[in-house]
Design brief:
The structure holds 2 protein chains of 2 kinds. Chain A is built from 9 helices and 14 strands. Chain A is α+β, with helices and mostly antiparallel strands. In chain B, a hairpin with a 5-residue loop joins β18 and β19 (458-470). The chains are: A alpha+beta, B alpha+beta.
Amino acid sequence: MDLNTVVEIRDARHPAPWLPGDAWLGGGTYLFSEPQPRLRRLVDLSRTGWTPVEPLPDGSLEIAATCTIAQLSRFARASARTAAPLFEQCCRAFLASFKIWNMATVGGNVCNALPAGPMISLMAALDGECLLIAQDGSRRRVPVASFVTGAGRKDLAAGELLRSVTLPARALDRRTAFRQASLYGLGRSGVLVIGTLDPLDGSLAITVTASTVRPVRLRFPHPPTAAELRSAICSAVAEGEWFDDLHGLPEWRRHMTLRYAEEIRREVTR
Amino acid sequence: MRIEVNGRTHEEDPRPGQCLRTYLRERGWFGVKKGCDAGDCGACTVHVDGEPVHSCLYPAFRADGRAVTTVEGLASPDGELHPVQRRFLDAQGFQCGFCTAGYLMTTAALDREQLADLPRAFKGNLCRCTGYRAIEDAVRGVRHVESPEAGESVGRNLPAPAGPQVVTGTARYTFDIDVPGLLHMKLLRSPHAHARIAAIDTAAALRVPGVHAVFTHHDAPERHFSTARHEHPEEDPDDTRVLDDTVRYIGQRVAAVVADSEAAAEEGCRRVEVTYDVLPAVLDPEEAMRPGAPVVHDKDATTARIARPRDNVVGEAHGEIGDVEAGFAQADAVYEATFRTQRVQHASLETHGAVAWFDEDGRLTVRTSSQTPFLTRRALCALYGLPAEKVRVVAGRVGGGFGGKQEMLVEDVVALAVLRLRRPVKLEYTRAEQFHGATTRHPFTVRVKAGARRDGTLTALQLRVVANTGAYGNHGPAVMFHSVGESMAVYRAPHKKVDAYSVYTHTVPAGAFRGYGLGQVMFAVESAFDELARRLGLDPLEFKARNVIGSGEPMVTPGGHEEDLHIASYGLDQCIGIVRRAQARYADERAPDGWLVGEGAALAMIATGPPGGHIADARARLLSDGTFELSVGTAEFGNGTTTVHRQIAAGELACTVDRITVRQSDTDVVPHDTGAFASTGVVVAGKATLRASRALADLLLDFAAAHLRVPRADCRLADEAVLHPGGRLPLKELYASARAVGVECAADGHFGGTPRSVAFNAQWFRLAVDPGTGEIRILRSVHAADAGTVMNPMQCRGQVEGGVAQALGATLFENVRIDARGEVETAAFRRYRLPQYADIPRTEVHFMETTDAIGPLGAKSMSESPFNPVAPAFANALRDATGVRFTELPLTRDRVWLGLRDAGVAEGT
């Protein structure tokens, strides 16, 4: 929709002091989908020229904030890395259609910090690390799993920019399992659980998103028993912490999370 | 800036925050539609450099240097349709057509892999009308349309006359016109569920550059009216003002700002300073009826036509025939339970809105997205004291209605602005406003008690019905009365009793919605009888078959019998037969291991028109070129009546449908038309068309016989001529001869909508449930429809499929949620789930073989009624599968799982 209070589009390549009412413009698929009466200027990231997906020499991947979902999907389909199928599974977990994939960006989904943000699920499960650049040019790195602190809340200062997310090589070599539940067929995630098994040391990580307000990561040096897994999840997420919104009752989300975590445990340790 | 659109270059800079959708529409590319403006519905899909995108999300400035293709550019420059356009015509893959451009542009961009997975490929496209089968057929290249010979079009699959315009993006919907000097209106809405406006200061708003006026309750007529539109306005309570000094729900309009642009009007709304005296609010209808509850309308009962204003009861019905207590005493089993249905939104893809101006003759002209142009004119005249000849109301092609547009929600305030400013003004709702500031289906609570003897004879039926009509009474009493009509009359029981209430609360108003209350009560009754049969150890369908009324029986409700309602054709026995065959044929459908399988059915009856009369005028005219013009009042919003009207006229005038041009939904073209609601488009307006066409045919034959001096009996219409023993008199010549002697070859037809008949429906599902997750899969869906003579099987099938799909949405997940303050929480399609392609199974549709003695050419209505049996059939199948009776909609996976767990059917974790 038209954002009628916006008076200027700025090019992110030409820095200028950050003002109240400024916002980074990635794909625009969130910003243009709701009224934004407080916005005055959009700082356009589309001309930055950042390489969407950059394989680094150490085997890790740096994914630019401006990488579109379509670009990420295409990259992963052509990739032979063990964890590659998880990329497409998470892309498909979007409520949005393939047409939105042509515009929506990885950075936008991460910065929206919604429980159902599937790029958060993907990047958190693969130990992704955000590279953040402040207005004064200083840089810091924060794990995706702790970057998102609540439903719609994130560790991002005013004017700070998410430049990219880096996925370490070792995470990309893990076996993965994916489960998603929605109240509807092909609908918005109410529960999204990812398991990764590290072939080097046999450790298992379970990442719970969508059913919780922020990503919950559980690491087990060795695959746990069903009871251990269940108890670990129940102590990591207190009774009142299951997400309660119109995409699923908390009790169902808890049930589905435990059910899927167990299915995943069996699948990856088979 | 340089954007190439369909080969034309646009060099104007967009506004900084403008999206591509409005940039294109402002340049006349009206094929690009606004369904949601939020990236959810896909109606605005265009290609940018060949890639499909939702143009409502696409920042317009990014299109610089790119080539954009809209639906207008899909065909080749010489007009040769794109194959996808051709296929959507061949399969008639649309009804209202508002979503069609988006489907065409999306389909044209699908690769082979995507074509193999349409549920996923169409995640970003919503259609509210079709139920998606027709869209699948279009994509797959299935051809349904026929081109019958002259005079043989009734009963055949004629395509919609507007099809070529729909698929090329040239059909003109409400806002698809360019009005020079147009001003834009935006509404400031209440943030409080109940408050008095103590003060309202518009000075700052008026200082916003571009703002022309701000209207508040000080500018509005004192007069109260009802937004509901009926032939007899006294059916509805007069409780609404154009702008009120009291607000009664979050979202009620407080002020209207008119400006040069929507942006300035929005800014003006933000600058209006309102001081509210916040008052206590009541959101629940049971609480609202208790003593001491906040009063929603402290008005005079007689003047406002509110049953008991102090008790928040706007309308009520009480009646008993026989003695239900005696009936329950005679029963071997009595079942009693409370059923609840939720708020549902119509979600027509075209939002509400109107654009109005003074024409050159000084007439107020209102172009609006309405099902009732004539009644809206009547209401505007009453409100502003204008004579009918000074007001013209027109509907273009309307992008879906479903009852939501049997209401005057925008025209009143737009007219106010035009009358004051003498400038053209437009108000177009946003999708969020559709949820906050339009109407919903009525949420119902139904306490049902039913008793039967061991042999399966129903002894007594008692209902207590509470309908939450929200802050305004509009359709409240009428929906409440209708809800306990056919739903109680279709079953024979010596003892029946009803107590029904339509209750005010401080929530968004409910209004007319497909089924008009019947579906909510049928959910309770059809579920309860299913349960009662099971308790008696009887087959639920046998039990119902035993107790439904037969063709010769009276239709009795606790309120008595409606004089003008008749069973003028009876297909309910055939409907039950269809269900029995489906039960047998699909008995062994498989489901995954661990899933529970069950089947269930429900029946429905509906009157083929509203009580109290429903008027339609039609005029058929021979034109100088030998073709015909048919003028009707009824609006076209995907209901397909225009197609059927042409078929009826073509049948009477012995020509092909392309010889008939239809003018419609314009108060200038016929004297009156009550409107396209209550399923009357074919049975009432169609009857007027039939009469006009038949009268014209008679007139032509009379004239020809006299003119040729041959016996009238030897003349007949055929081949664009009157055939007679001496040869043929072409209609063109007949026209000229008639004109020469001052005879106008035109005839009128009229129907008053009474007497009325009844139509029947039955729905059957076989489904599977995963008790571990609450997921339900529909294995089979079969629908039996008794529509009398089916005028156009392809189109009627579409109405049934669309009704079933819409009802499945209401059964499975649609829910307008209201928070503790009374605010709608689900004001976008990403929060209010509409059925998507992936959600809707194919439904086998069967038509019964009946011919109605009242309807035109034996036809009955079939637009609302397919909706009604769906939810109870589904719940009955779920009961059959799991042993658990679900009494509250919607049946989302989380609730189903929880219900099964609580009943011990599913394991908890």
